[in-house]
Design goal:
Layout lengths: L1 H19 L7 H20 L18 H12 L8 H8 L3 H14 L17 H14 L7 H4 L3 H23 L5 H14 L4 E11 L8 H4 L7 E8 L5 E9 L4 H7 L4 H5 L7 E3 L2 E3 L3 E3 L10 E2 L8 H27 L12 H22 L28 H11 L2 H24 L1
Parallel strand pairs: 1-6, 6-7
Antiparallel strand pairs: 1-2, 2-3, 4-5
Helix pairs in contact: 1-2, 5-8, 6-8, 8-14, 13-16
């Protein structure tokens, strides 16, 4: 390769000299220039990263027979008389078959990477179902990438690439629908359920989860290592009664606590900017116009955060703390479901790039919410059940940027300690009037 570059460079120099009328390039200076150019080009080519390394001289090429992997996968799960039925499909893919088909078709249309194509030699590559299955198996089980090679006939680097392409495609396609704030109609449903549970105005519960980062750079360990004594990344989430995640904020280092994450989180940005839908409710004869989340004891006493009483003494306080702790665990139950369904976030993260980890978490949250929608009230899901469904109606877009004084006033209302105390007193009275007789008995 170096000799070819040298000869090409010498020919180029001769042509350049003839055009400039400087004669032939017989001097040592021209030979030195040509040798230097050829050497630099060769060094750049050798130092260029090649994730697959399949074309290196002396490296053994694996004849994986990709088509046999495709046929085996289709026979096992995607034919009328498949080897494994619907129940095993739902367990291993973490979704129903029609949800898988919808996701596969959407990825194939949106991203050319998932299309079934031929290479320059006319050989067919991996099928879309193989790439999507590899990505979902990695998210579901979280093991090493080369563990899927024997079944799917895919190399380790190809599987990792499929995961990165899949997570980015899912976030781009479904993020606006499944990573958003609730609409007015959805808020009404949340308020009705909260009223029945004894907490009028409650929109969900908020908490944080740590994900261990195994391949965190050594120089960053002090920043990402906190309570767990290992480098971690934090996921802040808001979940409702049905474990639907309405807010997901991921990526802050594990050395921060929940209060630090809250001050950096955009969870109340829409409310402070005046773009959030209005929430009106009545507690103990008093009107309120801001919803709130249930939180544990570390969170600050804001008007939008209600935590329990640390040392309840009276029966009213004990009943309130018991009910608050019961419903606050909705978000903790959601974290348990996420870790149970998608083992990749239960074990340590083995990727190097924080951006890739961010896409993985967002993709998992989207798939979790999609699964709730697909499986709600349906014993066996069909694609025709969702024909004609319309996109959710989002809240009115308020393009008028509020003045600085109004923005600061909204932040003061959100973080009001007095508002928190008054709302908590009203909720204590409301809980006692609703469950007091039952507690005494």
């Amino acid at each position: 390769m170096c000799m070819f570059r040298f000869r090409f460079t010498m020919a180029w120099l001769r042509k350049l000299r003839r055009e400039r009328g400087q004669g032939s390039c017989s001097g040592y200076e021209d030979i030195l220039v040509a040798t230097t150019i050829a050497r630099i080009g060769t060094e750049e080519e050798e130092n260029k990263p090649n994730p697959r390394r399949g074309s290196i001289v002396g490296r053994r090429t694996i004849a994986r027979d990709r088509y046999s992997g495709y046929c085996r996968l289709v026979e096992d799960y995607f034919v009328s008389n498949s080897v494994y039925g619907e129940n095993l499909f739902r367990r291993r893919f973490r979704m129903t078959k029609n949800m898988f088909e919808d996701i596969k078709d959407a990825c194939e249309q949106a991203n050319v990477y998932f299309k079934w194509r031929q290479n320059a030699a006319g050989v067919w590559g991996l099928a879309p179902v193989q790439k999507v299955t590899a990505a979902l198996r990695m998210l579901a089980y979280g093991g090493p990438a080369d563990s899927l090679d024997e079944y799917l006939r895919m190399g380790e680097s190809t599987i990792i690439e499929s995961v990165n392409q899949f997570t980015r495609t899912i976030v781009d396609l479904y993020g606006p629908r499944y990573l958003r704030q609730p609409t007015r109609d959805e808020i009404e449903i949340l308020l009705q359920v909260a009223e029945a549970r004894g907490f009028p105005g409650m929109l969900g519960s908020i908490d944080c989860m740590h994900w261990e980062w195994e391949n965190c750079p050594t120089a960053w360990h002090g920043q990402y290592r906190g309570y767990f004594k290992k480098p971690t990344l934090i996921l802040e989430a808001v979940a409702s009664y049905d474990t639907w995640i309405w807010h997901a904020f991921f990526g802050l280092p594990g050395s921060l606590n929940d209060i630090n994450v809250l001050h950096r989180s955009p969870v109340f940005d829409n409310l402070a900017a005046g773009n959030a839908p209005e929430v009106q409710f009545n507690v103990n004869g008093r009107e309120y116009n801001m919803g709130y989340y249930l939180a544990d004891g570390i969170y600050p006493p804001w008007a939008t955060l209600i935590n329990g009483i640390q040392q309840p003494r009276t029966n009213k306080h004990k009943e309130f703390s018991s009910r608050q702790a019961e419903f606050r665990k909705d978000v903790e139950r959601t974290f348990g479901i996420l870790q149970g369904q998608y083992g990749i976030i239960k074990g340590p993260a083995r990727l190097w790039d924080q951006v890739d980890l961010k896409y993985i978490v967002d993709c998992i949250v989207i798939l979790h919410n999609m699964g709730i929608e697909y499986e709600k009230g349906l014993p066996q899901l069909r694609a025709t059940d969702y024909e004609g469904a319309t996109d959710p109606r989002l809240g009115d877009d308020n393009t008028n940027v509020p003045e600085l004084a109004l923005l600061m006033e909204n932040h003061r209302r959100i973080q009001s300690r007095q508002g928190n105390e008054q709302l908590k007193l009203d909720l204590i009275e409301h809980i006692w009037s609703k469950y007091g007789d039952r507690a005494n008995n």
